[in-house]
Each structure stands twice: as structure tokens, then as C-alpha cells.
Amino acid sequence: MTADAFANPPAASGAFREELIWKALKTVRDPEIPVNIVDLGLVYAAAASDVEGGKRIAVRMTLTAPGCSMSDVIKADVERKLAALPEVREVKVEIVFDPPWDKSKMSEAAKLHLGFDADDGAQAKDPFKVLR
Fold it and tell me: Which of 3, 55, 98, 100 is deepest in the core (most CB within 10 A)?
């Protein structure tokens, strides 16, 4: 599979399933942070509802900072990837800042990937140190 295939995954085949929303959201990355927006804790809610001819997906999410320079890029990527899912006719992405994002919202995997202590979100002194 080419690098472009990962950047632009094909629409899922078959019927719509809610789990497809979260799989698609996990392919969206903040261009400045090498972690997907779900593991970063940026997605507060995502749900599908029925509309004429298919599904409407509503996403409530935040950004790591209100002045995030990549906000339009991230939002457009979410909209594009969700719109490619089967049966989806409409996508609404709402960016909110209440509650504000902080490092505690990240998954344990994201914290480890970024070199933070898993239990408190503090930057690890030496994330590669081997305990003796």
C-alpha cells in the first residue's frame, strides 16, 4: 500500500456501522503532533443519526489550543474522511473550547509516544531511561 493510500483511505465497503466513525477519526492527525486526534483526546463526542437517504455524523471536538494554526486543516480532514464513509450524506464538526483540552485527556499510548509520564501527564525526565 502506498503512503498516499494511508493519507486518503478508500471509503469503507458495506453498510454503515458506528465503529467506522472512530476508525476514520483515528486516521486524522494534528500535522504538528504525530498522534491521531482520538488518542490526543481532542474528540469529545461523535454520533450518527438518520437523515433522508443516509446518515448524518455530528462530531464535537476541540484543539490543543484556541489559536491552533492547523484548525482549518484538521477540521477539513475530519469532514473529508467521515464524508467518505458508506451512507454518509452530511457531516457536522463543531469545534469547542469548553471544556478546555489538557494533556490528561490523552490516551496512555499517546502519552507514551510523546514521552509523557502515563500517570500524571508530566514530561518524563528521560523517557528512554532503563530502570535498574
Answer: 55
